[in-house]
Specification:
Layout: H1 3-28, H2 31-38, H3 42-49, H4 52-59, H5 67-70, H6 77-91, H7 97-104, H8 109-133, H9 138-161, H10 169-185
InterPro entries: Homeodomain-like_sf, HTH-type_TetR-like_transc_reg, HTH_TetR, Tet_transcr_reg_TetR-rel_C_sf, TetR_C_16
Keywords: DNA-binding
Protein name: TetR family transcriptional regulator
């Protein structure tokens, strides 16, 4: 098998694993089930990912460019962040790796750790830096960033992990924007 085919096969496996993990959770998904869905031998999952745990971590790797959402004037932070959140929540339901990590974090220590690292790196850290750069005292910026991060995680958990209705996207975005802005402004 050429490296080009190996890369394509690896990608095909990931594309089939993401929605399976999203819909059924870590425990219910089997290596054979993913392999069958991707049309490959289960041995390839072991070869490319080291097994189910490695496949799960690869399938739930989350990359979100946050600089557009948190950078800029603090007076518009709520609007920017809410727009980004709503786009993500309504963009690819059931296949969002962040949602998969949230759902699995209670049953898989690796998922909980990956989620914590993701949130520290992509949410809490950038929020803190943005608020501090807007002129807030270091301690105040840290407190407000932590409040925004906790609020967004709580709403995400309530509405996405516990499968409550997200509601109307425009109304949700307006509410998130106003609440995040209040937290940013103190």
């Amino acid at each position: 098998m050429t490296s080009r085919n190996a890369a394509a096969t690896r990608q095909r496996i990931l594309e089939h694993a993401r929605p399976l993990f999203a819909r059924h959770g870590f425990a219910a998904v089997t290596v054979k089930g993913v392999a069958d869905a991707a049309g490959v031998s289960p041995n390839l999952i072991t070869r490319y990912f080291g097994g189910k745990d490695g496949l799960f971590l690869a399938a739930t790797r989350v990359e979100i460019p946050v600089t557009d959402s948190v950078g800029g004037d603090r007076s518009e932070l709520g609007s920017r962040l809410a727009a980004s959140i709503v786009r993500r929540w309504f963009g690819a339901p059931g296949e969002d790796p962040l949602l998969v990590l949230q759902r699995a974090s209670g049953e898989r220590p690796e998922a909980a750790e990956a989620l914590a690292v993701f949130l520290d790196t992509n949410s809490l850290g950038p929020l803190y830096h943005s608020l501090r750069d807007s002129g807030l005292d270091d301690a105040v910026a840290r407190e407000r960033a932590a409040a925004i991060d906790a609020f967004v995680l709580g709403v995400s958990t309530r509405r996405r992990v516990l499968r409550s209705e997200l509601g109307d996207p425009a109304e949700l975005q307006a509410w998130l924007a106003a609440t995040i802005q209040r937290l940013a402004d103190g």
